[in-house]
C-alpha cells in the first residue's frame, strides 16, 4: 500500500513540476532573461567566492596551528593530521603539497600529491621571502599567476626569531570550478580567482579587461561583458586582495510557449500542487522512518546489552590485574584476578595500600592527562600474604557515569625480571672469561720478557749492563702493575649514575683494553673528529660495549684483518649526537641475519658464542637514550653506527 501511494505521489509531483516549468518558460521575456543571467552571475560569484574564502581561511587556520606547535615532533604530527584532514574533506585534484622547511626554506618534511609543481616551497620572490622572515604570512599564486596553484606560507617563530616555515600548495580552481564542487551550478559558465591587480595580467588581456570592468561599476556586483554577464566578489586574505569573477554562458534567446493558454489561469494551483504533494510524501516517509527507527532502537538495545555482558566477561577474565579507581586511590571496581592479591572495593582499601612506591605512583597519577594511556614504569605490588611482586603499571584517565576515574593495568613481570637478571649474569660470565683469556696471554708475554732480561743480566760481564737489565725488568713490572689497575678500574661498576665524559677519551681507553684481547693478526685503527664532545654514560658499560663490538668484528674476520673505529659528531632533527662507528672487513651479513643479530642468544658462530654480545650492546645504547644502526652486505664487511646524545 505504501509503495503504491509513494509512486502515485511522485508521479503527480513530477507532473506539477513540469507544469511549473511550462508556466515559467511561457512567461519569460528578454528582460527577465537578462535579469536571470544577472542573478546567476551575482549569486554564483558570491557563493563560490565565499566558499573559496572559507577554504583559504580554513587551510590558514590549520597551518597556523602546525606552525605554533611547541616541538618539531608535534609539528610533524599535526602536519600529518592536517594532510589526512585535507585528503578526507577535499578533492585533492591536480595539486596538493604541504610540509615544513627550515630557516633557509629547505624542506624538512613534506607530503605531496599530484603534479611535480606542488613540490617547490621556495618563495618566488625576495619580497615574499622577506615578508615571511618578518613573521608575516604569504599568500599568492605560483609562477606569477601562470599556474593555477596557490601557495600559502606561515612562518615558524621561536622566541620571536624566524626558524622555519609551514607551507601549503594547492589548486583552488580548475576547469570545472572550485575543485569540481560547483559544476552543477555553472550551466556553461566559468569562474576564475584573480589577484586584484590589472598590471599583473596586462590591461589588454581578458583578465585585465574584467578587472577594469569591476573598477568601473563601483558598488554593483555584476556587469555585461560581451555577450555574457560577469559577477564579481572581492575579499582580502593575509594582505592580498582577490576577486572571484563568474562569467555566465553566452546569452541564449528562450522560446516563448504560446500553447497551453489555460496555464496562467491555474498558476496558483500549479505552484502549490507540487508543494502539497511534497508535504504529503514527507509525512508518509516520516511515518515509515519512525517505524524503522523504533525497530532499530529495539535491535540496538539488545545488541548493547549483549556487548555489555561480553565486556563484563572480558573484564573479569583478562589475565592481568585491572583496577578502576579515582585519583585519590579509592577502589571502585576490580577484576577477578585482583582478588588473588586481596584488592577489593569491599575492603575499603586504597590502591596506594598495595603499591610499595606509594608516593611515586601518587605523583604519576596527579600529572597524567585525559584520555591518554600512560606507562608509569615498574613498581612493587604487595600481595595479601606480604610477598612483593614486580609489576609494570599503565593507567588511563577516562570519564564514566559523569565522573573521572582511572583505569590501571598491572602486568606481572617478576619472571621477566628474573630472566633479565639471568641474561646479564650470563653475559658478564662470557665477558669475564674473555677478559681472563686475554690477561693470561698478556701476562705470558710479560713473564717471558722478564725471564729474557734476567737471563741477559746473568750473562752480563760488567755491573753497568746488569743494572740496565734490572732497570728494564723494573719497567716491565711497573707496566704490568698499571695494566692490572686499568683492567680493575674498568671492570668494577661503582658508579651509581652516569657522569659526563669526553667521548674520545672513553673510546681510546676502550680500544686499549680491546686491543689486548685481540688476536695478533687483528689491528684496531682509530680516527676522531668529535671536537671534544661529551656524553653521559658509565665508563665500564661503554668499555663493555666496545669490547663486544671489537670481539664480534674479530670473529667475523676470522681473527685476521683491520677494525676501523671512528668517532665524530652528527647533527639531527632531534639534536646533537656523539657518533661511534666500528667497521670490519669480514664476511658481512644479509638482511635476514641483520634482523636477528640483536636478539639475545642469537649467534651465527657454530658451536661457540652465547649470542649475548650484540644484545648487550643494544641494551647499553638504549639505556643511555641512543640509537644503533647496522650497514652490511655479504662479502662487504659490516659497520655498526652508534649515536649517543651529547651531554651539555
Automatic annotation (TrEMBL):
The record's PANTHER family line, in alphabetical order, gives:
C4-DICARBOXYLATE TRANSPORT SENSOR PROTEIN DCTB, SENSOR HISTIDINE KINASE
Instruction: Please name the GO terms of the biological process aspect recorded for this protein, alphabetically.
Output: phosphorelay signal transduction system
User: Catalysed reaction per UniProt?
Assistant: ATP + protein L-histidine = ADP + protein N-phospho-L-histidine
Q: Which NCBIfam families match?
A: sensory_box (TIGR00229)
Q: What is the lineage of its organism?
A: Bacteria, Pseudomonadati, Deferribacterota, Deferribacteres, Deferribacterales
The residues covered by the Histidine kinase domain are 438-648
UniProt-listed InterPro entries:
HATPase_C_sf, HATPase_dom, His_kinase_dom, PAS, PAS-like_dom_sf, Sig_transdc_His_kin-like_C
Q: Which residues cross the membrane?
A: 259-284
Species whose genome carries this gene: Seleniivibrio woodruffii
Q: Which Pfam families match?
A: HATPase_c (PF02518)
Q: Which GO terms describe its molecular function?
A: ATP binding; protein histidine kinase activity
Alphabetical list of Gene3D superfamilies matching this protein: 1.10.287.130, Histidine kinase-like ATPase, C-terminal domain, PAS domain
- Report what the protein is called: histidine kinase
Q: What's the EC number here?
A: 2.7.13.3
Q: Which UniProt keywords apply?
A: ATP-binding, Kinase, Membrane, Nucleotide-binding, Transferase, Transmembrane, Transmembrane helix, Two-component regulatory system
Amino acid at each position: 500500500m505504501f509503495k503504491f501511494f509513494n509512486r502515485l505521489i511522485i508521479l503527480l509531483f513530477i507532473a506539477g513540476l513540469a507544469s511549473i516549468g511550462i508556466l515559467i518558460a511561457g512567461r519569460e521575456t528578454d528582460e527577465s532573461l537578462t535579469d536571470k543571467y544577472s542573478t546567476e552571475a551575482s549569486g554564483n560569484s558570491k557563493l563560490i567566492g565565499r566558499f573559496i574564502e572559507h577554504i583559504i581561511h580554513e587551510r590558514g587556520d590549520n597551518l597556523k596551528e602546525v606552525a605554533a606547535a611547541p616541538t618539531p615532533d608535534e609539528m610533524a604530527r599535526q602536519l600529518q593530521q592536517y594532510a589526512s584532514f585535507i585528503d578526507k574533506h577535499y578533492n585533492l585534484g591536480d595539486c596538493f603539497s604541504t610540509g615544513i622547511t627550515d630557516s633557509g626554506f629547505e624542506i624538512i618534511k613534506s607530503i605531496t600529491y599530484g603534479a611535480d609543481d606542488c613540490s617547490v616551497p621556495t618563495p618566488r620572490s625576495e619580497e615574499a621571502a622577506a615578508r615571511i622572515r618578518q613573521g608575516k604570512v604569504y599568500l599568492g599564486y605560483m609562477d606569477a599567476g601562470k599556474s593555477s596553484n596557490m601557495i600559502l606560507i606561515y612562518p615558524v617563530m621561536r622566541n620571536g626569531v624566524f626558524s622555519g616555515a609551514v607551507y601549503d600548495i594547492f589548486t583552488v580552481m580548475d576547469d570545472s570550478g572550485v575543485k569540481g564542487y560547483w559544476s552543477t551550478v555553472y550551466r556553461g559558465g566559468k569562474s576564475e580567482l584573480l589577484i586584484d591587480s590589472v598590471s599583473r595580467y596586462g590591461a589588454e588581456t581578458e583578465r585585465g579587461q574584467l578587472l577594469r570592468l569591476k573598477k568601473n561599476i563601483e558598488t554593483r556586483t555584476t556587469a555585461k561583458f560581451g555577450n555574457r554577464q560577469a559577477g564579481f566578489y572581492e575579499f582580502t586574505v593575509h594582505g592580498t586582495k582577490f576577486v572571484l569573477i563568474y562569467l555566465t554562458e553566452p546569452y541564449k534567446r528562450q522560446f516563448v510557449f504560446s500553447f497551453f493558454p489555460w496555464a496562467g489561469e491555474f498558476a496558483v494551483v500549479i505552484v502549490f500542487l507540487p508543494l502539497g504533494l511534497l508535504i504529503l510524501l514527507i509525512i508518509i516517509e516520516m511515518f515509515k522512518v519512525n517505524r524503522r527507527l523504533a525497530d532499530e532502537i529495539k535491535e540496538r538495545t539488545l545488541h548493547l546489552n549483549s556487548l555489555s555482558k561480553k565486556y563484563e566477561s572480558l573484564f573479569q577474565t583478562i589475565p592481568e590485574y585491572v583496577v578502576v579507581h579515582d585519583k585519590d586511590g579509592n577502589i571502585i571496581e576490580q577484576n577477578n584476578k585482583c582478588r588473588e592479591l586481596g584488592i577489593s572495593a569491599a575492603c575499603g582499601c586504597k590502591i596506594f595500600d598495595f603499591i610499595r612506591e606509594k608516593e611515586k605512583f601518587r605523583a604519576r597519577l596527579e600529572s597524567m592527562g585525559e584520555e591518554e594511556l600512560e606507562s608509569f614504569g615498574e613498581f612493587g605490588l604487595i600481595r595479601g600474604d606480604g610477598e612483593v611482586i614486580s609489576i609494570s603499571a599503565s593507567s588511563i584517565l577516562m570519564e564514566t557515569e559523569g565522573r573521572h576515574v582511572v583505569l590501571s593495568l598491572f602486568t606481572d613481570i617478576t619472571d621477566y625480571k628474573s630472566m633479565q637478571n639471568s641474561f646479564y649474569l650470563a653475559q658478564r660470565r662470557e665477558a669475564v672469561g674473555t677478559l681472563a683469556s686475554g690477561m693470561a696471554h698478556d701476562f705470558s708475554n710479560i713473564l717471558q720478557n722478564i725471564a729474557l732480561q734476567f737471563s741477559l743480566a746473568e750473562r752480563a760481564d760488567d755491573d753497568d749492563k746488569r743494572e740496565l737489565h734490572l732497570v728494564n725488568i723494573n719497567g716491565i713490572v711497573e707496566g704490568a702493575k698499571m695494566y692490572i689497575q686499568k683492567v680493575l678500574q674498568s671492570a668494577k661498576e661503582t658508579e651509581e649514575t652516569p657522569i659526563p665524559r669526553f667521548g674520545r677519551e672513553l673510546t681510546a681507553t676502550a680500544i686499549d683494553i680491546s686491543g689486548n684481547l685481540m688476536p695478533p693478526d687483528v689491528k684496531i685503527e682509530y680516527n676522531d673528529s668529535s671536537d671534544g664532545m661529551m656524553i653521559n654514560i658509565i665508563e665500564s658499560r661503554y668499555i663493555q660495549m666496545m669490547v663486544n663490538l671489537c670481539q664480534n668484528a674479530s670473529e667475523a674476520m676470522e681473527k685476521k684483518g683491520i677494525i676501523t673505529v671512528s668517532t665524530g659528531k652528527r647533527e639531527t632533527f632531534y639534536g646533537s649526537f656523539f657518533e661511534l662507528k666500528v667497521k670490519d672487513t669480514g664476511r658481512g651479513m644479509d638482511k635476514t641475519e641483520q634482523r636477528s643479530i640483536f636478539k639475545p642468544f642469537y649467534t651465527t658462530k657454530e658451536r661457540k658464542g652465547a649470542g649475548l654480545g650484540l644484545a648487550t650492546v643494544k641494551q647499553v645504547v638504549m639505556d643511555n637514550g641512543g640509537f644503533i644502526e647496522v650497514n652490511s652486505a655479504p662479502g662487504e664487511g659490516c659497520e655498526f653506527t652508534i649515536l649517543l646524545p651529547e651531554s651539555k
